[in-house]
Amino acid sequence: MKMVLSLVNLCAREVVSDHSSSPYWLNCVPRELYRALLDAAFTHCRPLAVGELVQRWPERKLIVGGNRKAGECPPNRLCVQALLLAVVRGLTDKRCSLQMLDLSGLQCEDGRVEDSMGGWSLSVALCSMVLQARAAASRAQRKDGERERKRGLEAERDRGTIKRDRGKVGCGNSGESSQGGHRVEVEKMECRTNEQMLAEDESVKGIRRRMEIQRRRTLSEGKSNISNNSSLCNQDWDEVVMVHVRADLFVNSRSWERVRDALSQPGPLRLHCRYLRVEELLAPSIASLLGLLPQQDLFGVDIRYSSLGVSGLAMLLPLLAPFPQLHSLRLHYCNLDLQRTQPGQEGALQDMSKGLGSLKRLKRLCLTALRLPGHLRLLLSSLSQPLEVLELPYLCLTSTDLAYLSCSQHAPFLKELDLSENWLDESSMPSLRRLLAQAQSSLCQLSLCGCGLSDTLLGALLPSLSCCRVLRSLRLALNPLSRTGLLSLARTAAGIPSLRLLLYPNPLEEYEPGLPASPSSAQLLDWPLLEESEGRELTLRLLDEVLNLRGRSRDLLVTSDLLNYSPDLTVDD
Question: Where are the transmembrane segments (predicted)?
Fold first, then answer.
């Protein structure tokens, strides 16, 4: 079977490589080969072939993007643009059967991949496609209306001609009186014809007047950019949609208006959002955006670098409750600083707790740098279902917060846990060990980067780590460990059969002299390493010996590179 598939892919690559031959094979290729041809066109960057295939796509559904395999490059920018243009052209192509276009996961946020399309660029291009299709439909509708108006005028003229012919038949056949009567009748008919034309002109003016009133009314409602679509505004989505487009949207202050316009009015293309990422938007703008999204399709919301405050977040959370499929909420740097007491703060926290409690299917919660010390119980106890992914970096967690988390309903179900940049001391160890014991059968990813773990603290934690039998990723960078402590960590990590990634800190022996006794993560990040490579070579050699002794040199990646390690290693095989 693999040989047959490989042969099909090889032939498809040859077919799409020569665009001059496309008129010959496009008319005779069976529909079963369209997918292989499109994949080959994407893989080998043939945007013209992409456009021609999508414009006459023979199936109702087309999926582009999705979860890419390790090492697989995302589609080229030119190919994506050709696809979007072809979707618009396909709306008027009778050969196209497309009704659902799924572009979820198509974006590429890796800046090292050349000529790929990031989430923001893809979102802008999608919205431009929707607006372009709507404008084309509006122009076509206006042309149809003008054509109907002309037919009506021609029909009126034909009726006038028939009446004139009847008048001629009724006149006398001789004498000047007959000719004079004929002239009088002609003059009367001309007067009536002129009156009809004037009436028709007034009718046309009346239509134009009504259109102008409608246009001004639309402008007054703040929708001037879609005034040409007034005939579509009063129709339901189901009456006008020809293709549903599903994608992940990335919206910021520069693209918000365009995204709003694409979502707000019916047209032949309807945009559905799977994951919404928002940056640098105020709470009212985010609320307006949420009100325009189709409710059945949204899986996750990611809000970053937006100055929401506690009150703004408390306002937004209830607006997420109507989305029945929502299972992921991520909040990064949203300016929720509760280390400083502010008026009305406790009431807003209660509202936040109620808002989180209204998200009945929430499985992933990320609260990055919100600085909420001592409030974890208030926020998480309102959730009706246990979380599977919990990310709490830079949250200023206290020992009380960890004690609650270790005994909460969430602990036995956690698959991913991130407590990075929360300072851990001896008082935190009992709660953390209890938490790991509760999650040992489910925890797949654990991050404790920058937590101030010394050799002593880590030594107390290693027995609990060794019991996590399904752990695949362990990240402990930027902790003040000596080389001896690092080797103890490596031995424990090598003894976990499921582990595939260990991100370890540079040992203290590799830093320049002068480092404080208990350095913070910021100091470890900024402090220079020794120029000579002997210390690093010694560390690597000792780590290799540990891995070889346990037989883990091939399936366990051990690295200290914060920037270039691959998170794909944590995905199940």
Answer: none
